[in-house]
What we know:
The complex is a heterodimer. Chain A is mostly helical. Chain A has helices spanning 53-69, 71-81, 100-107, 110-141, 147-159, 162-174, 188-191, 198-209, 213-221, 226-237, 239-254, 258-263, 272-281, 287-322. Chain A has a domain at 107-322: MetI-like (MetI-like fold, Orthogonal Bundle). Chain A has 14 helices and no strands. In chain A, helix 4 packs antiparallel against helix 11 and helix 11 packs across helix 14 (287-322). The two termini of chain A are 27 Å apart. Chain B is mainly alpha-helical. Chain B folds into 2 domains: 2-51, no CATH class; 78-314, MetI-like fold (Orthogonal Bundle), CATH 1.10.3720.10. Chain B is 75% helix and 1% strand. Chain B has helices spanning 2-5, 16-22, 24-60, 77-84, 86-117, 122-131, 133-136, 139-149, 157-164, 176-204, 208-216, 221-249, 253-258, 270-280, 284-314, and strands at residues 63-64, 72-73. The relative contact order of chain B is 0.11. Classes of the chains: A mainly alpha, B mainly alpha. At the A-B interface, helix 1, helix 2, helix 4, helix 5 and helix 6 of A face helix 3, helix 5, helix 6, helix 7 and helix 8 of B.
Amino acid sequence: MSAPAIDPVQTPSGKPGKSAKLSVSLTGRSGGQRRTTPARFDTALGWSDRPGPAWALRILLCAIALGVFAAPFLTILSGALSTHPSGSSLSFFPHDATLLNMRVAGERGIWDYFSNSLVIAGGGLLLQLVVCTLAAYALARHRFRGQALVLTLFMLTMMLPEEVIAIPLSLVLGHVPVLGLDLKGTVWGVILPLGAWGFSVMLLTEFMKDIPDEIEEAARLDGVGELRMLWQVVLPLCKPALGVAGVLGFIMIWDQYLLPLIAAKDPTDYTVTVALAVLRTDPEVGSGVVLAGAVIALVPSLVVYLLLQRSLVTGIAAGATKG
Amino acid sequence: MTATVTTPGAPTRQRRALSQRAFGKIALSRKAVLPWLFLAPGLLLALVFKFVPMGKGIWLSLFEVRPFLGDKWVGLDNYTRVLSDHRFQDAIGHTLVLGIGQSLGAIALGFLLALLLEGQARSLRIVRTAVFLPVVTATAVVGELWRLMYYPTSDGLINSGLGFLGLGPVPFLDNPDTALWATMAMGIWIWAPYNMVILLAGLAGVDRHLYEAAAMDGVSLWQRLRYVTLPAIRPALGIVLVLAAIRGLRVFTEVYVLTGGGPAGSTDVWMTRAYTLGFTRNDIGSASAASVVLLCVTLLLTVTVNYFRKRGDVR
């Protein structure tokens, strides 16, 4: 059974309705659809799929787009692999490939930063998914007093990114109210503030609402309790939404900059993205080493993206329309 | 609280209607408590790490924060000081220029990309995947990349390209006159593919038969874009614009990793300024005031937009 909210099959009919608005875009309108109109009506510009002047122009423009948006990533790689890494000698391909920069970056502790990042990304994502799933389950499958208020509160957390509350947040991290803990310098200082992410709550809530009541009723008649209901009935039905929340959550956590910065007690607590600035200001290493660090910081998000591309794109389109 | 939940003997697993009638009180309280148990972790984390800091920020913005001496109440002084500070006014100006330029640029470029890359062919899919890379890359990595591309001597990547066209080396990030524009270009580069995805979703929703009908009426390509495509993707465009505006106001990481606000404060934006005030100069009160103003503007913008969008939906 596929719940309707994230249905990749595009309905060719008119307005972007509930299913159309989540329809995929990087992957295009999915292949299963029968073509009812000629190719030149398939795109807004009426690109033809036969060789010709327009076709050649399109290829040229695509090449330019690739050059502008993707080629710079080749320079990171080639810069990281070349021996005399001065910022001025960047090119798309390394002249003499070597792993020297990686080794120097390793000596500067890049792998420690990297493991900090992995722990934070792993722990943060796990916490975020659990917390948001629980909250979404309550919001989607229960009726209770104050529901609208809670929903508003979670929406409000999206209005309060780390940037806006950075200064008081750093005070709170140094002395958590009531408990009096000092989270600074621990991974918890980064992980815990990422736990309640309004976007994930919204996304999962919307998705869980679309699960038919009959399924829940039937399970209840069978004597299924709340936790089992969530774990064995609801969750398996919202795998696609979990995928989206997971990918977007990972990208969002990996991209964190200010939070690891203010949660750190000293530079060894930094994540790999923040540590790039440390490498850059280190007078003894050249930009090749910084680029080696950049490659290391780039790889995880790249892997996640390439593996779960479809979820990511669906999620961005969905998140945008839900707002 | 938990005591009511585990009341022994209550046949709690029955259908709601039944249990509600038969065991009114117990079932009711159980039903009332359950959702809150599920919500507790999320609400707790949001409370401690979002709302308490927000409240604390508002509170601190009314004080002159003095470690060890105790805070001194100054009322709205922090606000007047921040808003009348020249460097801060400059920063607000930069934020607006950067936000507006970056948003419009990224939307225009994103739209062109969407038009170019719309379609189902496998090759197009690969191009889209590659073009989307800037969005998934951590901002810090993008910053390092662009720093090197902007290398000021003539053999820097972009400058060598300009040299090829016969243009002199531009000291992109080192010159106060060009630094803001260079930052804007990076922002457009990051966000154009993001907008592309949303706009592509919009384009996919356009009824193909409209194009066919337009062709029968013999309209030109431009008319077809203007009168068929554009109205159909207006909702998507609106969303993209709003997201960009809100993002633009609180831009921090992009500027911080690329220029750090320099040279000579020429790229200082609202948040980098507040960060400098708070963490470098330790003027927590003023920094909080700046953050509160930003928060209010963001909230106002969001609420207004949502209001208009709701009204649009109803209509």
